[in-house]
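Render this sequence as a predicted structure.
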Amino acid sequence: MEKALRVYAEMLRLVRRLPKDSRPYYAKYARENFVNYRDFDASDSKALDELFHRAYNHSLWVLNKYSVNESAAQKLKEICLMDENV
């Protein structure tokens, strides 16, 4: 659960880098996705890892769409793909 909250918080930080008129849409989109998966089985680590990987990849797609440098998502990458201890 803690890792999911860290991913969500980092995604909201990335939303702030988007153009002002698109921020509300992507903030709402991120929230809706996290709400939809809140009842997900936390004991299924493989499925959770897949969800975090998908969140990271989608974030990269959005950043590229708005020409935001991918390096902005480095912390999200660390949380989603490299941080296996949480």
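Summary. The CA atoms of residues 60 and 71 lie 9 Å apart. Residues 1-81 form one domain.
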